[in-house]
Design goal:
Two copies of one chain form a homodimer.
Chain A: E1 11-15, H1 20-31, E2 37-40, H2 53-58, E3 66-69, E4 72-75, H3 77-87, H4 98-112, H5 121-128, H6 135-160, H7 174-188, H8 197-206, H9 210-213
Parallel strand pairs in A: 1-2
Antiparallel strand pairs in A: 1-3, 3-4
Helix pairs in contact in A: 1-3, 1-7, 4-7, 7-8
Chain lengths: ~220, ~220
Amino acid sequence: MRAARLVIAMIRLYTYFRSSAAFRVRIALNYKQIQYQPIPVHLVRGGGEQYSASFGERNPAHLVPVLEDGALTLTQSLAIIEYLEETHPTPALLPGDPAARATVRALALSIACDIHPLNNVRVLRYLKAPFGIDEERRTTWSRHWIAVGFAALEQQLTRSGTAGHCCYGDAPTLADCCLIPQVFNAQRVDCPLEPFPTIRRIYDHCMRLEAFARAAPAAQSDAE
Amino acid sequence: MRAARLVIAMIRLYTYFRSSAAFRVRIALNYKQIQYQPIPVHLVRGGGEQYSASFGERNPAHLVPVLEDGALTLTQSLAIIEYLEETHPTPALLPGDPAARATVRALALSIACDIHPLNNVRVLRYLKAPFGIDEERRTTWSRHWIAVGFAALEQQLTRSGTAGHCCYGDAPTLADCCLIPQVFNAQRVDCPLEPFPTIRRIYDHCMRLEAFARAAPAAQSDAE
């Protein structure tokens, strides 16, 4: 006789396996052991399911991730993770001290603002048409912004002396939630990572953690 | 007989009058009535003072703003404002409730991640060379991303029913710190703002507030 298990997932995550912004939130949910129901949104098929009217109702910006917690609808990966941090504080993804929190947030934002937006699907589409930039030059563009951003990040991680196994100390923070998906993107466009030994070391460590491994693109139900 | 006033500005802000990321932090500092010493960094002259070795010591990413609080050096405008919020909580730039905080942060991030990075000086430079995109098409690119981002933002502001005189309620928040500088940028590239009545209304209101007016590009000592 088996006991029936009733799982009510109050949290739903609109996600795409390859979206690095969705990947960040999946890491945070796993790390905090928050049960959630993933709802795949295919960003490429048929011009992109994110442009459907029903998804536009959830997020007028037509971007994943979107997190629904009961009747609440939240957008923007970093705002979602800060919300999870405030509503599920343990284990923490931000340190306690304001200066340390600012350092972690700055590392996260240097990826979320200075690298990732330039290599988004919609931006690469605009470069293709109307700008007529061919695939090889678009890939060079992607690699360029990753290399510029990672060069600054590598310096920040080594100089501050605060990096341990992870970006800040030995436990994952918001910064690692952003860094690991960005390394995945770097690998997709064959951006050389040799100049960034600290980033590579942190990546190798985090990917051995279950919360990160289970959030990876290939581990998602909508992976291709 | 006048009493001598000794002002020790412990906080220094590396800023450029036209940088909208620096503008965000200037608003927050003014709103919280935090005295600071502005240190101008010319982003254009001589290829950009942000690329000097001494500035690179402060921020390896060679971007403004940088805030120094005593021996502490902070980068990334949103991380700096969250730090100011935690160290100078009154008047608040974030509401108290986690859901409301997430809403405000998402509005701010939709500007800081989805609009602003695409129209940065260094990105427009890359479009010019090596991509060879002429000025007219670069301006069309800038207007495009502002219009796409503002269209989503306008919907979010009107649909949520939470906008008042400002993006969230009647008092300024982190969202307004980001929105007002982005409207300045929109005006610089002649992006039509007629389709965005809520954004225009909030802009008009905020620019009547001293904290915003005093943070505007034309009010800076390095304005041209």
